[in-house]
Fold these 4 entries.
Entry 1:
Amino acid sequence: MNVNEIDDLLYSIPEQIDYTTIIDEVDLEDIPKERVNKLIDILNNYSNYEFYQVFKAGGLLCHWGIEEGFIYISNLLLSSGQESIRKEFLEGYDYKYILSAIQGYIVCKIHTEEESIARNKIYPCIKEIINLAKTKFFSIAGFYYLIFERYNEYVPLIEDYLGYIIKHPQENYWNIHDTTKLLLKMKSNVVEKIFEENGKQLSDFGLEENSNSPSKKEEKKEKGYFWWLKW
């Protein structure tokens, strides 16, 4: 395939799709089997492609719940043999994309007999992403609705994450805001302690105690804010 054909494979939206302009958000049932097979072929022959072409192919497949994609993404994230690749190529926004791909993977398994197995498989990946987010300052809030609705095993990790990022408020205003809001809704008993130990108040991050009403600063946040945070 030439560059244009590869780009078309990785980014183009099928003509009949009118519900999104982002290929990752297209339902697997709307993707031709031939296209899926070509994406898998990119993973199998990765040495013939640029890293970000392989990365995108793996991310798409993972997002659609396809095992080859998850294996690639989890290996890239966790394998010691991939450390040099991570250091050379991956930035915070790439890890955010990885989180989105893994989120898509587990969502595809919800209400199926595969969910329990997939739930265990993604845990080390999500744990690693949460740890990376402490120092790379990317948002992990896209995963929070799943923690709230189904996967409370991540609450201790999120509590630890908040305890770290609250020490870096300038880089993490919205990360602290979103994380605190999640933990308050999950009745976490450590939020008050974390804030007291760091000399902070909820109002410092656009939150009001015992209120779901946004502050004026929160109202200015860009569109696309996660729906559950608007409760």
Note: The longest helix spans residues 115-136.
Entry 2:
Amino acid sequence: MLRLGNFSGDDDHGFARAIAAATSLSSLELTPLLDSTFLLALLPRLLKLEELTLKTSVLRVEPALLNAPVPRHLRTPTLTYCTMDDATGLLHWASSCLATVALNMCDKVCSKPAPFGHYLRRWIAGGITTVMLKICEWNAKSIFAVASSLCNTRRSSPFLLWLDVDTMRLESFQVLLEALVTCTGVSIQGDYPCGFGFDERAQIQSWVTQLHLRREYTSGYDFHILSPS
């Protein structure tokens, strides 16, 4: 297994040539890169790539990706504080066998809730098993977009939405749980907001009971709530 991590340097052309030649590369982590668009253009050559981690990058879809073969083994892209255009955000360029998408400090969740909701719906329909949203800002529109994407989801294999909800209000939990009750094979997991005490957690448990949702045992500081079936 060939890995390359935490690359930094000024020779972009030399780096691009080195990546293009590393056809057996299975794991690639780059931080920071102001513009990683050139890397997307190289992805069709990295057919054994399984893990891709990018931090502080700008990503724009490359025309070459639309008709070229993608890394068929790529299962886990992790993007931290990355700026993406709408076409890139759909991750069409990634793989047909994605398992986990991890977005950290992704401003699109809050600033462009409708497009992000579209991303999420497409990922779920495409068979992705886990979407992780960490250190993302939340507002009423972004919660509604996520809830709308979850509604009426029917999965034969489990789907997990992991949320960092530290900026989420109590009412937002109710919106998400009401969406979850319409689903099959879906669960929501995360850590409770720091400001939530006994009363807030008890209210969430009350909604879980009223909506006939299921809840797995946790430490008390986090939650894992499952759809009725």
Note: Residues 72 and 96 are 7 Å apart (CA to CA).
Entry 3:
Amino acid sequence: VLNMAVIPAEAAAQLQTFQETLDELCEDIEKMLQMLSPSSAEPLPPLKRAQALLALANAIHALNMLLMRAHGKDPEQMTQIHKEQERLAAYKKKVAKAVSGDELSRARKTVELNVDAANRFISAAIPD
């Protein structure tokens, strides 16, 4: 428990702002988790869901690192942090690969051959 009489007013105001921001972040994370739930009223498509879950995991990982630093621990010295970073990097690559595959498949769908036009072109190119 902090003794607010010892803390300068400016620092106390910054701590209050930090606490309010942290509370808002917790509310946003709860909303996101509810939205990502498979039982959600409007479930996201699998690729969007994977991107959102990866973003959420990265945000929570960053918050965990901040918490460790606030407790005076060096996150770079902890093997769990390195394992989590490697895991997130691997999933980031998987999601990026899925996104590029999805974009490629959508690009392929837009190219269609107009058979009638192709036949007219071929007929015009072949001399009688």
Note: The chain has a mean pLDDT of 86.
Entry 4:
Amino acid sequence: VHRFSSAKMAALRVGLAGVGTVGGGIAQILSGQRSLIAQRCGRAIDLVAVADQRPIEALEAELRGHADLKHYSDAVDMANNADVDVIIETIGGYGTALKIANGALGRGVSLVTANKAMLAVHAAELTTIAESNNAKIGWEAAVGGGIPCIRALREGCAANRISYAAGILNGTCNFILTTMKETGRGFDDVLAEAQALGYAETPPDLDVDGIDTAHKLSLVAAVATGCLPNYEAVHTEGIRDISGADVALADELGFSIKLLGIASRIESVE
């Protein structure tokens, strides 16, 4: 049985930006699985700073098991000043999240993020900042984190020339289209159910207009080809105009309607 090295390494000091559903889950895993993580990684991972607009007293359930935490009400302030090795960004979007990324990477603090929207648009500049300051960006969870697929493409397929990639990249759209097929209900009705279940945001534009799929596809294509993400070049369509009749007709013909992200390598023509 392989055993990891028992050599003692200093604990990895982590700052967490955002203690919502995702951030709170991360904090609980770091606390509840601390011994297992240390055993497998060869060093402990200590959550030492958190940033959330709520007072730390309101975060007791999420942060149980973590002592001596430095609390910041401003996540950008934490990214710029906290004594940490890594910042985990869970806020999302382009605004504050990009400031967090710039602040952390600019002073040599590595970044972990699942923010595919930010990466799809700003990967080039963030990569440059990270490389200039000997920092790293970990973003496996941005696309298919539960599979996972990014590391498989980057490392497992390092010797392969990938010419085509396709997949269902958005769970919300998949739920809506599958439910429409199974129940015969219309798009608006099923979308409302998805929102009530917490599967779709309000407004749901990023999901149902195909933007989330385009963000993820640009990242997959970048890893597969070795190029930087080019989200603006992705032709994007969503599922808003798909009716119950469309789904029923496809079913009669033996097909299912799905929102696919498709990337194909096209040889340049001289």
Note: The radius of gyration is 21 Å.
